[in-house]
């Protein structure tokens, strides 16, 4: 993660999601979203309470496009692949980072993701366990 953020230029951590902006070529809509991939990172008061899935993604007009999956994470276990688009989390349509944070903060120990498959197999629901993450109490 550190290497990725260093290459990206300016990095800002916000509510458990790290945004990396490439100051040379990226516009605001080309943000790289790091969805809590690692464990053991420091927890700041504004990042605690958001469960971890373990993937990188970009917000698009279609939803949250997965760009990389961390091996061994919950996202890896449920079969998310680069190119998949998360359209909904527990029936919350993902239009922006706020929608993602809202859905994850209101999640229990499990969530359901509506995913548009990268291989053209259509839309399907995936059930994810948030065992390794932080839970809302």
TrEMBL record:
InterPro entries xrefs: PDZ, PDZ_6, PDZ_sf
Pfam families recorded: PDZ_6
Domain PDZ residue range list: 63-119
Highest taxon in the source lineage: Bacteria
Hydrolase listed as a keyword: no
Swiss-Prot/TrEMBL keywords: Signal
Signal sequence segment: 1-28
Protein known as: PDZ/DHR/GLGF domain protein
Species, as recorded: Rubinisphaera brasiliensis (strain ATCC 49424 / DSM 5305 / JCM 21570 / IAM 15109 / NBRC 103401 / IFAM 1448) (Planctomyces brasiliensis)
Lineage of producing organism: Bacteria, Pseudomonadati, Planctomycetota, Planctomycetia, Planctomycetales
């Amino acid at each position: 993660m550190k290497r990725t953020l260093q290459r990206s230029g300016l990095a800002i951590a916000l509510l458990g999601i790290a945004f990396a902006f490439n100051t040379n070529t990226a516009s605001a809509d080309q943000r790289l979203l790091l969805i809590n991939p690692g464990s053991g990172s420091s927890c700041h008061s504004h990042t605690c309470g958001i469960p971890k899935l373990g993937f990188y993604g970009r917000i698009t007009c279609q939803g949250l496009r997965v760009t990389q999956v961390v091996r061994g994470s919950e996202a890896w276990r449920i079969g998310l692949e680069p190119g998949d688009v998360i359209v909904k989390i527990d029936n919350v349509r993902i239009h922006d980072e706020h929608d993602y944070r809202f859905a994850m903060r209101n999640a229990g120990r499990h969530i359901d993701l509506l995913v548009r498959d990268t291989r053209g197999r259509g839309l399907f629901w995936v059930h994810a366990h948030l065992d390794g993450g932080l839970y809302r109490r």
